[in-house]
Amino acid sequence: MQGRDWLVTKDGQYQTCKSARVWDLLRDNYRLYRFLTEVEDVLNGVEDESIRLPEIRMLVRRLIVNSYWVLSQHLEPCSKTGTSVLLLYDELGFPLTVQTVTFAPGTISTIHNHGTWGVVAVLKGQEKNTFWRRNDDSKSPDKIAATGEVILCPGDIISFTPDAIHSVQAVGDEPTVTFNIYGETDPQQRFEFDLVTHTARKF
């Protein structure tokens, strides 16, 4: 499942990054527990974890190339909200969030950041990401403007710095399924943005 790698930063800038070749990632018996251990090893002793995003993207690609189990772990989208989240690993004190997310066709997320780094791989369907940045306006510091958008397809992996702002829409005729891994969220730095009122509230 070869695809493109992307990085999105605080200023709404987005760029393609070098992607590992699939045949260099093939492993026998590569399972979720090994992936989680390798991610922990990559992050061990690092103060700014977002500088490790290239390595984490590579590990995510290795996981989706080798683990059919991960590809099969997702829920049907909720008929009321259009989304469903399946937590893949949950242990007290474990600082990472690992989950699959399903969006029904046409479902649109809020405009938000994550308050931590994140890496998202598209497993099925198509997902449009719109990117935003805060304006340099002291009177309206939470006023945002769109900077661009990309449509991600299966095999594409996108990564975010903690203050990158985006919104997501499932496009096409089938549900979108993604594999998501996030660092430890700072609840004081995670926001949802309102385009009408030019405000941000904790999310």
List keywords for this structure.
37% strand; 203 residues; single chain; alpha+beta; 7-stranded mixed β-sheet; globular; Jelly Rolls; 13 strands; 3 helices; 3-stranded antiparallel β-sheet
**The first-level CATH class name:** Mainly Beta
Helix segment tally: 3
Main sheet overview: 7 strands, mixed
Q: Structural class per helix/strand content? A: alpha+beta
Distance between the termini: 33 Å
Find the count of extended strands (DSSP E, 2+ residues): 13
Content of β-strand: 35-45%
What is the topology, as strand order, of the major beta sheet? 2-1-9-6-11-4-3
Mean pLDDT reading? 95
Compressed to H and E, one letter per element, the order equals: EEHHHEEEEEEEEEEE
Could you characterize what this model shows?
- The protein is α+β, with helices and mostly antiparallel strands and 203 residues long.
- It has a single domain, classed as Jelly Rolls, CATH 2.60.120.
- It is built from three helices and 13 strands.
- A hairpin with a 4-residue loop joins strand 12 and strand 13.
- Helix 1 packs antiparallel against helix 2.
- It starts with a strand and ends with a strand.
Summarize the structure.
The protein has 203 residues and is of the alpha+beta class. It is built from 3 helices and 13 strands. The chain has a 7-stranded mixed beta sheet with strand order 2-1-9-6-11-4-3, covered by helices on one side. It has a 3-stranded antiparallel beta sheet with strand order 5-12-13, with no helix packed on it. The chain has a 3-stranded antiparallel beta sheet with strand order 8-7-10, with no helix packed on it.
